[in-house]
Amino acid sequence: MASEHLEHKLALLPDKPGCYLMKNINDQIIYVGKAKNLKNRVRSYFKSSHTGKVAKMVSEVADFETIVTSTNKESFLLEITLIQKHQPYFNIKLKRGTGYPYIKITNERDPRTMITGQVKKDGAYYFGPYPNVYAAEETLHFIQKVYPLRRCNGFQNRPCLYYHMGQCLGACFKMVPKEKYDEQIKRIKSFLNGNTANVKRQLTKRMNDAAANLEFERAAEIRDQLHYIKVTVEKQKIISNDQTPRDLFNFYMDKGWLSIQVFFIRQARLIKREKRLFPVVDTDVEEMTSFILQFYNRRNNILPKEVLLPKGLPNKEISEILGVPVRTPERGEKRDLMEMARENAQLSLDEKFRLLELDTRKTTGAMKEITDALGLPEGHKIEAFDHSHIQGADPVSAMVVFVDGEPAKKLYRKYKLKSVIDHADEAASTREVIRRRYSRLLKENKPMPDMIFMDGGEIQMNAVKDVLENELGLDIPVVGMVKNDKHKTADLLFGEHDEHINLDPRSQGFYLVQRIQDEVHRFAITFHRRVHARHSMASRLDAIKGVGPRTRTKLLQNYGSIPKIAAASVEEIRSLGINMKTAQLIKVSLQGNADVAKGSSHD
């Protein structure tokens, strides 16, 4: 039932199109929606009975705002902007980058082929997205061997290692005619567009010849190349002779959950499928529309030439916003593909329901146990911090995030501490990381967590409270995770006087605290070991005459470890743009150390 305050605001709602923003008791925006008629839509939340995620959202609403727009199309655009700005808990949210790999032919005087995760308007050719990162990389390696362009860093007055291997046309020491590049690029584009018959014939013959000559390793290598071509380039499911790039969306909704399938159709084949499952608040049409518009508003997504949608969605508005034709197939292969997408969506959701029955008590139920024990309103997001160093060396902090009892690993953050003079000063370490984390959230106008957990006692907790309250003006509950003399989770510290809050050690709430404490400790230790090891590698390289910061960075970026640098040949080291004398000194110094280490291990 709506409060008196909400009842007064409901009476004043306009019957115009626009967006509405639902807020919780902490004034955080927890849901953004759009409506053709704000009065009818917003009132429906408080005047009707609900179940599932809708009921949960309504129970947390303490206030709301509305923004009136001139047209329904404007409300679509505003909704997407508000969702991406505020990242409300109850909305479907998509990250700005897809992470799918593309094969790129660069737009340069001496072009290269490469794998990229970012699509830019730079005049380059992009092929993808590809469904398998490893296979795409192997296909790129194959292209670089069969259709070489440039693999070196450019003109250096001598042939590079790749030129000697037949994988570079020689821009490292001569002017390569543009016509030669154009001819090679034409072959690459034809290959990536699915014309693989000639290459496959050649590879199959080489594989059979290698096997006949008992060169089984070589035959296996060629067999793998054939497999990678099949995974990334060959036609997987021919849907028509029409080469138009299309994306196809369909969905299935049940019990407040929306299951979405996206099919990517390129070069007349189904090249990739993406599936998403969300608990939703609004109607299937509104949620699907929001998903589609967010999907194409991401930084790394190329619009197809056509979008295919099921019946019932606002095709006209979506087409106007995206700037591409949006159609609903009525017959033929595309309609069959649409049905297949819906069937897959239903199967995915049925599987999800079976898993949900097992998981609910262990996740959201555990969160409620914790907030009830602390006397706090129900929350969803916990951010937890821990520090790590070895006798004061290389101090770091780490943050893990749990949402509704589950780790949200994409939200984890790592911090190299910069301002701590005494590296064993836990309070100073805590102040720095809390200041950096939450001043940034304030600056970027991003939502705060419901609780902050610190691995430690009163010293760390007081440091957190001091920064939040006195420097940043924030009011976020701070909880300490206490360990016993066996270094195991014991209880919580909370409140004005840091009182001990005991949880039942057999409860899901206690188990969740234990998971958070173990996870943040693991994450901090792992990060510290990597930083410490990298500093050790850097110091070994710095000890070699002629190796400065730029050379050290090149070596570490390309090889990643001292043993791998030691195993590289002088020519391979030189191909990074390092002169012969320094390359030889690096090889001798590191190889010598490696031999000493190997000899001592046998003593």
Automatic annotation (TrEMBL):
The keyword DNA repair applies. It is found in: Cytoplasm. Residues 197-232 form the UVR domain. It comes from the Bacteria. SUPFAM superfamilies: C-terminal UvrC-binding domain of UvrB, GIY-YIG endonuclease, RuvA domain 2-like. InterPro entries: GIY-YIG_endonuc, GIY-YIG_endonuc_sf, GIY-YIG_UvrC_Cho, RuvA_2-like, UVR_dom, UVR_dom_sf, UvrABC_protein_C, UvrC. One of its GO terms (cellular component) is excinuclease repair complex. Residues 248-468 form the UvrC family homology region profile domain. CDD domains: GIY-YIG_UvrC_Cho. Transmembrane segments: none annotated. GO terms for molecular function: DNA binding; excinuclease ABC activity. One of its GO terms (biological process) is nucleotide-excision repair. The UvrABC repair system catalyzes the recognition and processing of DNA lesions. UvrC both incises the 5' and 3' sides of the lesion. The N-terminal half is responsible for the 3' incision and the C-terminal half is responsible for the 5' incision. NCBIfam families: uvrC. This is UvrABC system protein C. It comes from Limosilactobacillus fastidiosus.
